[in-house]
Write a structure and sequence with these properties.
With 363 residues, the chain is α/β, with parallel strands linked by helices. The protein contains five helices and 16 strands.
């Protein structure tokens, strides 16, 4: 079933990360939902995208909405989620298979099935997925305080008081808040976000210039354990409705080893087993897997996993892929992705795409 993942160990894991350089191998900052009994912890995040939000009652600014809804005012320049030459958009269908692919797939779970951690409606009273709040130009910025300020981009952030929170206002999981300012073409992302006075408090936070390939500083987390943008890896309904997801998809795995793989910037494990994947590792659906029997929504997502692949972004349930909630999702169709197993995937070597270890641009 689609359900939010509890994050009761997040504070302990992140504290260990900050004081000792890395967290325990099971700790993460995770995704929006989890299988029964699954836990995860560490500075990271995932946010669920809902349908169009209600307009603000205040006279200014006007017209906040969820992903897929029309902005209240047209942007002077289109805002895509990172440039076309960014690694998130890279075609990895022809990249070489990693030398330890079989071992890494095995530790993730060769027999475990893919799970769409997003959909329509609610699960246990909360939207299914990681919500995104779209704000208009001129959205007022408010103060944000961070538990892990040394790895967070300082505020203020343009986060409205009614921004969508992963898991809902009373959620006890990752509580990601993802704000997309299309006019400024920036994403503001928080992990463990809570209202605080006139602003917000959060575990960690990151600001991404969506027109830039600049990466976060080495060793820094974000609202996700890997130090990556959560927004960049979410499956959104508007993409699937158009017939093409043109980017890699965020995925969680139970354990990772220490260090990170480009374009990640952060480690959340002290494990050294070479059979474990690292945060940032890229996986793809094998070309041999037959997708013809999948319903359209599931097939479009699966095709993206074959062309652009999956990016290991956090710890959590095996093969849970992240997306934004939307009332137009067909949950039955999305559940058809459960037919795919870990053994249908392979780890790819992305080293040949890199132009500069400090940049997410690809050759």
């Amino acid at each position: 079933m689609l359900r939010p993942r509890p994050r009761l160990a997040a504070v302990i894991a992140v504290l260990t990360l900050v004081t000792g350089g890395c967290s325990a191998s099971g700790a993460t900052a995770g995704t929006g939902a989890t299988a029964p009994g699954a836990t995860s912890a560490a500075p990271g995040a995932s946010a669920a995208v809902g349908g169009a939000g209600a307009p603000s009652a205040s006279p200014a600014p006007a017209g906040r909405a969820g992903i897929g809804a029309r902005p209240s005012a047209p942007a002077t320049r289109a805002c895509t989620v990172f440039p076309a030459d960014n690694v998130w958009h890279a075609d990895v269908s022809r990249l070489p298979v990693h030398a330890r692919s079989a071992a890494m797939v095995g530790t993730i779970g060769a027999a475990a099935t893919v799970h769409a951690d997003f959909g329509s409606g609610q699960w246990e009273g909360a939207p299914i997925g990681i919500p995104v709040t779209v704000v208009p130009a001129g959205q007022r910025k408010v103060p944000v305080t961070f538990g892990y300020a040394d790895e967070s981009d300082p505020g203020p952030y343009p986060i409205p008081p009614d921004a969508k929170v992963e898991g809902g206002p009373s959620g006890t999981g990752d509580r990601h808040v993802i704000v997309w300012d299309r006019a400024a073409c920036r994403a503001y992302e928080l992990f463990d976000a809570h209202r605080s006075g006139a602003g917000w408090r959060a575990g960690s936070g990151a600001v991404f210039d969506l027109r830039s390939n600049r990466m976060r500083r080495a060793g820094w987390t974000s609202a996700d354990a890997a130090g990556l943008s959560v927004l960049a890896g979410l499956v959104r309904y508007d993409e699937v409705a158009a017939g093409r997801v043109d980017h890699a998809i965020r995925v969680t795995v139970p354990r990772t080893r220490t260090g990170w793989t480009w374009p990640a910037s952060h480690s959340a494990s002290s494990a050294t087993d070479p059979a474990l994947p690292q945060l940032g590792q890229r996986l793809r659906l094998k070309r041999s897997v037959d997708l013809s029997g999948l319903p359209r929504q599931a097939r479009v997502v699966a095709e993206a996993m074959r062309i652009h692949g999956l990016v290991v972004a956090d710890h959590g349930s095996a093969w849970y892929i992240s997306g934004a909630p939307d009332p137009r999702w067909d949950n039955v169709a999305l559940h058809a992705l459960d037919r795919l197993r870990g053994s249908d995937f392979e780890v790819v070597d992305v080293a040949g795409l890199m132009t500069d270890p400090r940049s997410a641009a690809v050759r």
